[in-house]
Amino acid sequence: MEYFLQQTVNGLTLGSIYGLIALGYTMVYGIVGMINFAHGEIYMIGAFISLVAFAALGFLGITWLPAAFVLVLLIAVAFTCAYGWTLERLAYRPLRNSYRLAPLISAIGASIFLQSYVQILQGARTRSLPSLLEGGFTPLHGLGLDVTVSKMQLLIICMTMLLMAGVFMLVNRTRFGRAQRAVQQDKMMASRLGIRVDHVISMTFVLGAALAAAAGLLVTMYYGSVDFFIGFLAGLKAFTAAVLGGIGSVPGAILGGMLIGLIEVYWGGYVSGTYKDVSVFMALILVLLFLPTGLLGRPDSEKV
């Protein structure tokens, strides 16, 4: 039981990271109806920017962790938002009204370009960051279960829940959220009602990039290592999480991320670490056989 609970904590931590990245996928798909396959590379860039920012703050003598964390988060969000905005303007907007395969090819090309771009700038070797937040808690010690929840794991899970709640409130309770939902339903009618459709789509990409930056920062602090290829597999699993939870659903993205994290950790802990990635896609296939729209997704309805 103790091992199972420890693996559950590890799985929820990993799933929270997948969920944050999946939020970017699900928001862009919900508004524009296309998959941003370069989103994993935006997350990778956020991780690298976090690493560089921590090094710069250390050089300037800013070592108080809460202040450093907030400053690095702001720096990472600012840079990744600029990347997200530029990506939408250059790779997606010119092809928005083209045939459906064109934006997909453009997204794959943007993903390869960003990988190569970071590899040239930072090199192919892994970059490391010393552990910044150490220590933890054993909340079930009184029950004879030494299950450790590290401070970093607690930060990741709590921050994911707060960001999910913030995005949910933004989409459902704000003027911008109403504009997003109007654009999702009918871009032409939204434009005729005075909504700046291009602005709404650009800001949705920016918001997704900001969430990816937060995930990149948390991963950098948690694992302490970054390389130019981390965005590929993490992005693929996050996309799987978005589909599993129901792409277009904000709670579904987090739920799918949590399930993917738990499946991966349980499979690696109880079956085999070699095929843990395969288990994720097997679970996706099984869910979609019985729930084609995902766990919390709703079928698309088209007015005629």
From TrEMBL:
Keywords from the named record: Amino-acid transport, Cell inner membrane, Cell membrane, Membrane, Transmembrane, Transmembrane helix, Transport
Coiled-coil regions listed: none
Top-rank taxon, per record: Bacteria
CDD domains, per database record: TM_PBP1_LivH_like
Protein topology in the membrane: Multi-pass membrane protein
GO CC annotations, alphabetized: plasma membrane
Pfam (any one): BPD_transp_2
Span of the signal peptide: none
GO molecular function term, any single one: L-leucine transmembrane transporter activity
GO terms, biological process: D-alanine transmembrane transport; L-alanine transport; L-isoleucine import across plasma membrane
Subcellular location: Cell membrane
TM spans (from-to): 12-35, 42-62, 68-87, 99-118, 152-171, 197-222, 278-297
Protein family (similarity comment): Belongs to the binding-protein-dependent transport system permease family. LivHM subfamily.
Record's protein name: Branched-chain amino acid ABC transporter permease LivH
Organism this protein belongs to: Paracoccus solventivorans
